[in-house]
Every structure is written in structure tokens, then in C-alpha cells.
């Protein structure tokens, strides 16, 4: 079991750069899947100490609309994320308005490369970059696997 490295594109640790862990969760094409990733990686509050969560995730997300209810994801993002980078897509257009009043500025990235570079710039030692789109890959990529492979290649060049 110790040799099992996980499944590519499913909360896969791609690499660590200057103390920042970078995860590829390209198969997360629903808000529930992205919430699960945030909760798995996020710093849960201690019940005894009642301390706040550490918001140390830079989330890269966005893509084609599947008509899903995003309200639960909108509620979870501020609990875990210090920044959100949005990939262009029909779902992103609507989602941007739902998170417009968050304390951080969402940034739309014109390409996956731009999103990865901006995420790298926003993350500090001890943070994580999470690519968990919550939307379909149509338009910018052939499919979710193409999207994930491109992300992994970009991360390996950092």
C-alpha cells in the first residue's frame, strides 16, 4: 500500500515547489467533487481550540457550464481559499458573479498557463495550489484528461 501513488487527476500531488504543494484534481467536474478536495486538503478547525481554518489554498477552477447548483461551493470557498483563479468558460461567467463579494479578488485567466503562473505567484511556503475545476472541460480542452495532462506538464516546468 505504501507504493500506491494515487490515480492521475484525482487529488494527485504533482510536485512541491518552494514549499508549495501542487495538486491536480482535473476529474472534479462537479461542485461536490471540488468541495471534497477542499475539505480533504484544507485545515479543519479544532473543536477544542475553536481556532479558525488556515485559508491556504489557491484554487484554479472554471470551465463549461453543466447546469449544476454551485451555491454549496460558493459557501465553502472562503473557508479554505486565499485566492481563486478562474479559467474561461460558460460556467465561469455565472460563477464569477456568485463570488464577487469575497474578500479576495477572483482573477480570470485567459489560459491554463496563465492560471498556473498566477497561482504560483499567489502561493507562499505552506500553501497549496489546487486545480479542481468544478466544471466540464469543453471548449478549452479535448476532455478532462487532456486538461489534467496539460496542467501536469505546466507544473513540471515551474
Q: Evaluate the radius of gyration.
A: 15 Å
Distance between the termini: 30 Å
CATH architectural category: Alpha-Beta Complex
Largest beta-sheet details = 6 strands, mixed
Question: Overview of this structure, please?
Answer:
The protein is of the alpha/beta class and 158 residues long. The chain has a single domain, classed as Protein-Tyrosine Phosphatase, Chain A (Alpha-Beta Complex). The protein is 34% helix and 19% strand. The chain has five helices and six strands. Strands 1-2-6-3-4-5 form a six-stranded mixed beta sheet, with helices on both faces. Helix 3 links the parallel strand 4 and strand 5 (107-109). Helix 1 packs parallel to helix 2. The longest helix has 13 residues, at 144-156. The chain is globular, with a radius of gyration of 15 Å.
Structure, briefly:
Helix content is 34%, strand content 19%. It is of the alpha/beta class and 158 residues long. Helix 1 runs parallel beside helix 2.
Question: What is the strand and helix layout of this fold?
Answer:
Elements lengths: L11 E6 L2 E5 L6 H11 L15 E5 L9 H10 E7 L2 H9 L8 E3 L2 H11 L5 E4 L12 H13 L2
Parallel strand pairs: 2-6, 3-4, 3-6, 4-5
Antiparallel strand pairs: 1-2
Keywords: ATP-binding, Cytoplasm, Ligase, Nucleotide-binding
Organism: Candidatus Lloydbacteria bacterium RIFCSPLOWO2_12_FULL_51_9
Protein name: Mur ligase C-terminal domain-containing protein
Amino acid at each position: 500500500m505504501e507504493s500506491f501513488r494515487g490515480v492521475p487527476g484525482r487529488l494527485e500531488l504533482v510536485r512541491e515547489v518552494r514549499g508549495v504543494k501542487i495538486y491536480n484534481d482535473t476529474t472534479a467536474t462537479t461542485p461536490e467533487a471540488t468541495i471534497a478536495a477542499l475539505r480533504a486538503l484544507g485545515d479543519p478547525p479544532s473543536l477544542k481550540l475553536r481556532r479558525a481554518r488556515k485559508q491556504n489554498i489557491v484554487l484554479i477552477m472554471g470551465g463549461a457550464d453543466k447546469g449544476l447548483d454551485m451555491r454549496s461551493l460558493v459557501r465553502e470557498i472562503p473557508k479554505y481559499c486565499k485566492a481563486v483563479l478562474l479559467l474561461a468558460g460558460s460556467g465561469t461567467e455565472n460563477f464569477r458573479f456568485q463570488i464577487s463579494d469575497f474578500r479576495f479578488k477572483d482573477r480570470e485567466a485567459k489560459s491554463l498557463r496563465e492560471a498556473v503562473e498566477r497561482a504560483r505567484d499567489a502561493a507562499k511556503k505552506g500553501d497549496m495550489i489546487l486545480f479542481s475545476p468544478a466544471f466540464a472541460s469543453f471548449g478549452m480542452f479535448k476532455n478532462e484528461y487532456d486538461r489534467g495532462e496539460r496542467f501536469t506538464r505546466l507544473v513540471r516546468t515551474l
